[in-house]
Amino acid sequence: MYKVTSRNESHAAQFTILCFSDLPHLQIPLFIIFLTIYLNVIFGNIAVCLAIVFDPHLHTPMYILLSNLSVLDISYTSTSLPNLLIMLSTQQKIMSLVGCITQMYFFLCFGGMEMNLLAVMAYDRYVAICHPLHYTVFMSLRTCLVAIISIWIAALLEPVSLAVLVAKLSFCSSNKIDHFVCDISPLLKLSCSDTKHINVTIYIIGTVFGIGTFFMTLVSYIYIVFNIMNIHSSVGRSKTFSTCASHLTSVLFYYGTIISLYMRPTSMYSPRQDKFFSLLYMVLIPMLNPVIYTLKNKQFKDAFKKLINVLFSLKI
Questions:
Q1: Who's near 87: CB < 8 A, 6+ residues apart?
Q2: Which of 73, 67, 30 is nearest to 287 (CA)?
Q3: How far apart are CA 199 and CA 188, in angstroms?
Q4: Digit-coded pLDDT (tens) for 96-152
Q5: Other CB atoms within 10 A of residue 103 CB
Q6: Which domains does the chain carry?
Q7: Pure H helices in 22-80
Q8: What sign does the dihedral 212-181-175-166 (CA atoms) show?
Q9: C-alpha 261: how far from its chain's center?
Q10: Taking the CA of residue 187 as centre, how many other CA atoms within 13 Å lie in the half-sphere pointing to its CB?
């Protein structure tokens, strides 16, 4: 299992993902729960994408960004839940070093992508509420598509340096990852190499990308709040706030979990705590996003009705 090197160090050829091994009596119930959640994520977000595709009234920057978020949520959840379901059903919990780093890369990639996308969506709401007459100028379809392409390119490149650095680490004493996914924190915990340079890289990336996008989101909502406060009619304030309430809810969920997961020293790593916040971060949020964005949206309800009619007509 290990390739032994000098100084009693080793390069792990494979890892054992402990998953929820401390709950042996709950393996089948957990499998059913996570399978149900995964199917809800897949079908819920596919429904959002199809509703936007089939309704020309939703071919606007706001809904194009939302469809991108749905694709991202499906991709992000698919990096971990299928493998988790296999481990729960077969109890085969071995993962190679290459497979582990690959999963970590896409886990970080899609997580960073969602951060960037939420920032662009916040800017879109800022323009729509604070500069409605110039919306088509500041947020044209071309601008929206350029932003989406930039988000994907940046997110794909962002975790490359971390993946390369982790691949060079030596591991000793244990190859057991007390998690259900190969995230960077449990991997660093197992390493007997000096990980200070990786921690510095994490904080640099977190500062440049994380704080940058968070600041953009925060400033957008500060302007939105001031604009709403200047509306004299309570009905007008309520109506204006409703246009960004769903996005604000997603932002609060996302940053609440991401700060709990990554914005702390490695010495404060807690497996049980990380499992809990990871579940919120990569399972609950992708499942709730379709509900959050469509629950009180009349345009979406009309689009879903049209989608259902289209599907039934194709069946006939």
A1: 17, 19, 93, 180
A2: 73
A3: 9
A4: 888 888 998 998 898 888 889 999 999 999 999 989 888 988 898 899 999 999 999
A5: 18
A6: 13-315 (1.20.1070.10)
A7: 27-54, 61-78
A8: negative
A9: 12
A10: 29
